[in-house]
Each structure stands twice: as structure tokens, then as C-alpha cells.
Design goal:
By secondary structure, this protein is α/β, with parallel strands linked by helices. It has seven helices and 14 strands. Helix 1 runs parallel beside helix 5, helix 3 packs parallel to helix 4 and helix 5 runs antiparallel to helix 6.
């Protein structure tokens, strides 16, 4: 019996050698190393590709079905640059890349753009993936590489997306990164980065000890662009399988689940930090 698939990171590099650019090979080497050393290394896998052209992206998305699409190279307000057959580079139309993600990258939950001036691009791609990271200004090669390595170190340690981003940003601040070099995490309203884990829950650390959380807890989520619920469920249930089946019937995926001894709780269901009547809350948008 096989376990759940690990979260895939697809790192695409597009740097024209004759034009110079960041050392994306070193970035990929460092990210590969931290993933190998991660606490939950089995829950995260890395795929890399160099010298990427625009028509390569679809094939990589279909082959690897990544959870994270990571781009390294050059960019401008026009879009991300990819290689051309003559050895140069040219920008992609951001709207077209967003359409491609919507069509063929439906498992992508995060886009990381490790390139200068990509904040606006990240905002657009977040509308499709749910979350995206970009830089507001110019960023140095070493800073960008350090951020990437530390970010995936945090993800591999079981941290949620928001805390992982903040921790990695704190590391590059310690080394003197300026405001324009601090990447910004964008998300759509229905996605909460502070509770979104990229790793499958089977690879995450065991739940807290009994008494630290309510008796039955579930984090529920749907794909970006649809209704999304962050729900604290309290009460009793016949079994974990029964609760999962009940939620599956409502087209809800269980991101994380804990059950203890089944003692009843008086706490109400909470959605996005607001109390709701448990009988009606699931019909309301998150």
C-alpha cells in the first residue's frame, strides 16, 4: 500500500548565457540540498529544468503536476523572460501564463518568482494558484538564492506557507536585504497562507497532545477560485472514517484532522475567525 504523493516543487530556470544573469544552477543546488535534509523530506520532491522556453512549460506541468511552480531568471513589467531559439530571451504574457496554469497546472497552489520586479506578476498569478511570491524591486543573486533555500527548508520542516515565508524573509533581513529585496506573498481572499500547508497531512508532525486542542478539528479547503472554508469542527463522531466520508460528500477535502476521546465541547464552529451557527455555517462563503 503506497502513501500519498509528496508535494512537488518544479523549478524552472530561463537565463540566456550570452546576456548574463543569476546563477540559477546554484539556487537549484541549494534548494535540492535543504529538501534532502528536511525533517519531512519524504513529503517534498524537487524537479528542475534549465534553459526553459515558453513551449516547454506545458510539458513540465503535465509531466510533474507540481504543487509549487518556481521560476528563476529575468522579468520585467511585461512578464517573465524565457529563452528563444536564437539564444536570446523574450517575455511571456502574464495573462497567457495565468491561463496556462488554470488549464494545465490545476494542482499548483503556489507560484514563486525569484526574479526582480515581479510583484505585479505575482499578484496576477495568485488569482489562479491561490498564492504567489514576487519581488517589489531589484534583488541580488545571493539574496534570492538564500531566500529560496530557507523558504523550502521551512516548508520541509512542516511549517505553513505564511510562517515559512516570514521566516525566510527574516533570514535575508539579517544579512542586510533592503525593502525592495524582501519578497511579498500574495494570496486570494479565500486562501489563508497561515493555515495552508504544502505538504500532505500524512507527512506533517503528529497532532498536539490531548487537551491542547478541541476534540475534533479539521482544516477544510477547496481549490483556489472556488469557495474555501477554514473550519473548526467540535463535537463527537463515530470514527475518523465516518467524519472524512461525511466531509467528502460535501466536496470538502480534509487538510488536517485530529480526533481525541470524543468528549463533547461547547465551542461553536468558527470560519475565518468569525463564529457561525454550526447548522448553517457550511453554506456560507469563507
Amino acid at each position: 500500500m503506497t502513501g500519498p504523493p509528496p508535494a512537488g516543487v518544479l523549478m524552472l530556470s530561463a537565463v540566456a548565457a550570452r546576456l548574463g544573469g543569476p546563477d540559477t544552477g546554484e539556487e537549484q543546488r541549494q534548494v535540492n540540498q535543504v529538501i534532502k535534509e528536511a525533517r519531512y523530506r519524504d513529503g517534498l520532491t524537487l524537479h528542475t529544468a534549465q534553459a526553459v522556453r515558453g513551449d516547454d512549460i506545458l510539458g513540465h506541468l503535465l509531466d510533474h503536476e507540481p504543487t509549487v511552480l518556481h521560476f528563476s531568471g529575468h522579468a520585467s513589467d511585461t512578464g517573465l523572460y524565457v529563452l528563444t531559439p536564437d539564444g536570446g530571451d523574450a517575455p511571456l504574457v502574464t495573462e497567457g501564463l495565468a491561463d496556462l496554469l488554470a488549464a494545465a497546472g490545476k494542482k499548483v497552489r503556489l507560484v514563486v518568482i525569484n526574479a526582480c520586479g515581479t510583484d505585479l506578476i505575482a499578484q496576477e498569478l495568485a488569482k489562479v494558484a491561490g498564492c504567489a511570491i514576487g519581488y517589489p524591486g531589484t534583488v541580488g543573486d545571493q539574496v534570492a538564492t538564500t531566500f529560496a533555500a530557507q523558504f523550502y527548508r521551512c516548508v520541509g520542516a512542516g511549517m505553513a506557507l505564511g510562517p515559512a515565508h516570514r521566516a525566510a524573509a527574516a533570514v535575508i533581513r539579517m544579512y542586510g536585504a533592503g525593502e525592495s529585496e524582501i519578497p511579498v506573498l500574495h494570496s486570494v481572499p479565500e486562501t489563508d497562507p497561515d493555515t495552508l500547508h504544502l505538504l500532505h497531512p500524512a507527512y506533517l508532525p503528529p497532532p498536539p497532545e490531548q487537551g491542547r486542542v478541541p476534540n475534533a478539528t479539521a482544516f477544510l479547503a477547496s481549490r483556489a477560485g472556488a469557495k474555501r472554508y477554514t473550519v473548526l469542527v467540535t463535537g463527537t463522531t463515530a470514527s475518523e472514517a465516518h467524519l472524512r466520508a461525511t466531509l467528502a460528500d460535501k466536496n470538502m477535502d480534509v487538510q488536517w484532522l485530529q480526533l481525541d476521546d470524543g468528549s463533547e465541547s461547547e465551542q461553536p464552529t468558527r470560519i475565518n475567525g468569525t463564529s457561525h451557527d454550526p447548522e448553517t455555517a457550511r453554506d456560507e462563503p469563507g
